[in-house]
Amino acid sequence: MTTESTTNKNEQTLSPEQLADEIVQQAEEQVEEQHEHAHEVLSAEQEKINELELALVAAQSTVSDQKDSVIRAKAEVDNVRRRAAQDVEKARKFALEKFAGEMLVTVDNLERALQNIDKEDDSKAAVIEGVELTLQGLTSSLEKFGVKAVDPQDQPFNPEFHQAMSMQEVPGVAPNTVIAVMQKGYELNGRLIRPAMVMVSKAAPSVDESA
Q: In principle, which of 60, 79, 106, 176 could form an S-S bond with 157, CB 3.0–4.6 Å?
């Protein structure tokens, strides 16, 4: 006897209430099986989602670490480049300052020669002209490199740029005025490399009117 005939026989022997209960039980078992299968599927999918989320977090952490490393490396490269540029600029300024200092001695000597030479002596006209041309060419070359003279004649005394060698009372001249420049000062690209040596006027002594 087949299962189907047995089932049919059982259905024939069962009461309608029993048959309904059996059908409900079978339906519940099928629903439970489907629920368990769905739960298993969801659990597997959730596990995959969890794995993907962990992988994403790890990837984001790696990217963040690499980004920080790149930023730090770039900052270090920028610092090295900046320090190198500063070192080059310092070396350049030092070289120019040393060069200018050597040339200023020659400028001073040429200016003193012009001051001391007898300009009334016609026999020395060619020498004077040669010294003047040499001095002019030298100062022009220095100016191209940013070397500028500080000649404060008749200007207020400024201790940042001038060095007072002596003071003298001069009638009609305001105190702290440069009345003579014994040696010019010089700047290199706006920075003082040698102060001007000057003579400064001073105030007349006060008169005690009660005397």
A: 176
149 and 184 Cβ atoms separated by less than 8 Å = yes
Supply the pTM of this predicted model. Answer: 0.53
Contact 138, 105 (CB under 8 A): no
- CB neighbour list of residue 134: distance below 8 Å, 6 or more residues apart: 110
Give CA 43 to chain center in angstroms: 56
**Contact status, residue 150 vs residue 161, Cβ threshold 8 Å:** yes
For residue 122, the SS3 value is helix
pLDDT above 90: residue 67: no
Helix (H) or strand (E) holding 9: helix 3-13
| 93-102, 139-148, 157-166, 187-196: least confidently modelled range | 93-102
